[in-house]
Amino acid sequence: MRNFVRPFAIVLLAIGGLPLLPICCAAFAQEAQQVDGIAAIVNGDVITYSQVRQLSAPRERLLRTQVTGQELENKTKEVRQLALKDLIDRRLIIQAFKKESYQIPDHVVDQRVHDIIRENFGGDRSTFIKTLEAQNYSLGEFKEKELERIMVQAMRSHNVKTQMIATPTKIEDYYRKHREEFSSKEEIKLRMIMISGQKDTGNAQAQKGLAEEVLGKLASGGEFEQTAQIYSEDSTRDSGGDWGWIGRNTLAPALEKFAFNMPIGRISSIIDYAGNYYILKVEDKRGGTTKSLAEAHDDIEKRLIQDEAEQIQDRWIATLREKAYIRTF
Predict the structure, then answer these.
(1) Is the residue at 265 inside a domain?
(2) Which domain does 226 fall in, by range?
(3) Is residue 204 part of a domain?
(4) Do residues 151 and 244 both lie within one domain?
C-alpha cells in the first residue's frame, strides 16, 4: 500500500486547524440514529434520507425565514437535491481514495481530534468525551468521520491543480466585463416635503402657492425637518420627511434625477410631478464609486484562479460519476 502522507502534507496542515463545533457531533449522532430509507446507492455504498436532511438542514432553516407556501416546498426540494449531489460526490471521492490504496496515518487523525478538543473544549478531553457519550456517539465513530473529511480534502487537493496564469489581458478583460462587481451601491440620505396639488377645494393654484411659501421659509433659514412636520402631506411627515438612505430605483424617475444630482445640503426648487409638488434635500451621500483596475487586480487574479480550479474539480467529479454505478430513489 502506498502512503498518502507526503503528497498531501501541505493540505493536511491546512485543514488540520479547521474547527468542528460540538453541534457537529450532535449532527453525526443524529445521522446514525435516523436511517429511515435509502436516498441513493453509490457503487454499493448507501446514502440515507436522514443523511440528506442532516446536510440540508441549515439551508432549510434559512429558507423558512425567507419564503412560504409552494415556493418554500419547491426550494426545499432543490436544497435537498443539492445535498444529495454533494453526498454522492463525497462518497465517490472517498471510494477513489481507497481504490488507489492511499492511507492517512492514525497520528494525523489523532492530531485533528487534539486540535478540536483544544479549540472547542478548552483542551478538556474529559468534557469532549462526555459530550460524545451524551449524544450516544463513540470516539471511534467521530474519528471515522474526521478521517473521511481528511480523505476528501486530500483528494481534492491532489486532483484539482490549476496551472492557470492570470495574464494582464485576462484580468483586464474580466474587469471590463464585470465592472459592476467592483462598484459600490450609490445611496443618498433624503428628506422630502410633498404638497398635494389636488386638495378638496380643487384649487391647484393655491396648492402651488403653498409650495412656494414653504420653499420661501426654507430659503429664509427654516429647518427642513420642522417644516416638513408642519406642511408635508406624505407618509414621512411625522419623521420630518425623512426617507433615510435610499438607492436608485426607489423614487419615481423624475424625482430620482433631481435627488441623485443634487449637492449635499442643497434644497431643491419645487418639482412638479404627477400633479403634486415636491421639495427635496439631500443630507448625505455614499457609495457610487468604482475600484480602479489596479485596485481590483489582486481580487480578479484570485477569482480567475478559483474559477479555473472549480472547472477542473467539476471535470474530475464528472469522470468519477461516469465510471460509477449510481442509483437514486
Answers:
(1) yes
(2) 184-286
(3) yes
(4) no
Please report whether residue 254 resides in a domain. Answer: yes
Residue 234: exposure state from Cβ atoms within 10 A (0-12, 13-18, ≥19):
middle
Q: What's the whole-model pTM score?
A: 0.59
DSSP letter (8 states) at residue 43:
T
The one-digit pLDDT tens for each residue of the chain (329 residues) are 444 443 343 333 333 333 333 334 444 444 444 447 999 999 999 999 999 998 999 999 999 988 899 999 999 999 999 999 999 999 999 999 999 989 999 999 999 999 999 999 999 999 999 998 887 888 998 999 899 999 999 999 899 888 788 899 999 999 999 988 898 889 999 999 999 887 655 577 888 899 999 999 999 999 999 999 999 998 999 999 999 999 999 999 989 999 999 999 999 999 999 889 999 999 999 988 899 999 999 999 999 999 999 999 999 999 999 999 999 99
Q: Dig out the grid coordinates for 59 from the structure.
A: 439551508
124 plus 45 within the same structural domain: yes
Contacts of 114 (CB under 8 A, 6+ apart): none
